[in-house]
Write a structure and sequence with these properties.
The chain is of the alpha+beta class and 168 residues long. It contains 4 helices and 10 strands; from the N terminus they run ααββββββββαββα.
């Protein structure tokens, strides 16, 4: 008889909650960022261009997954260190599998339309690990496209034969 009393409580808890919320997904998810070499500067902007984080690698930080009621967040992660080429990585959100399949079994319509969208649990980051190897920029000289005026006597004799006369 005690089991019959537990059934309405179990039913009410599953109907009044979304499955992604039940499975413990909060409005935030941790992003881990590492680089080789470490101590690179990391700047994270959200989809509106607002800086939400600036620090050094390695680091871990919670990112909000929900932008709006039925829209997920998107982040631009910039990693740079002097002497290395900078890297830009996009971290987007995608629909959580528990939101889709789990609400078929547990949360139902309330989970799909109210609870999981309101809490942000319907979303998950498309990646929660960024591990980059920063590359040294290509070696070589940068040649500026400028005009220089020099005296003929300052031009080395080996280059004089390559000179072109420009008419006035």
């Amino acid at each position: 008889m005690k089991m019959w009393k537990a059934i309405p409580v179990l039913f009410a808890s599953t109907v009044l909650a979304g499955c992604a919320t039940i499975m413990g997904n909060s409005a935030h998810e941790t992003l881990n960022v590492r680089s080789a070499p470490d101590q690179a500067t990391i700047v994270i902007l959200d989809e509106s261009g607002t800086k939400i984080f600036e620090g050094k690698t390695p680091t871990s930080l919670p990112l909000e997954k929900k932008k709006g009621y039925f829209s997920g967040k998107k982040y631009s992660v910039n990693i740079k260190k002097e002497g290395f080429a900078e890297q830009n990585i996009t971290v987007d959100t995608k629909v959580n599998g528990w939101y889709v399949a789990g609400n078929l079994v547990f949360g139902g319509v309330i989970g799909w339309l109210i609870v999981d969208p309101a809490t942000g649990a319907m979303w998950k980051l498309d990646t929660n690990e960024i591990d980059v190897t920063l590359q040294a920029p290509r070696q070589g000289r940068t040649i500026e496209n400028t005009t220089r005026i020099v005296l003929l006597e300052d031009v080395p004799p080996s280059l004089r034969s390559k000179m072109v006369r420009v008419s006035q």
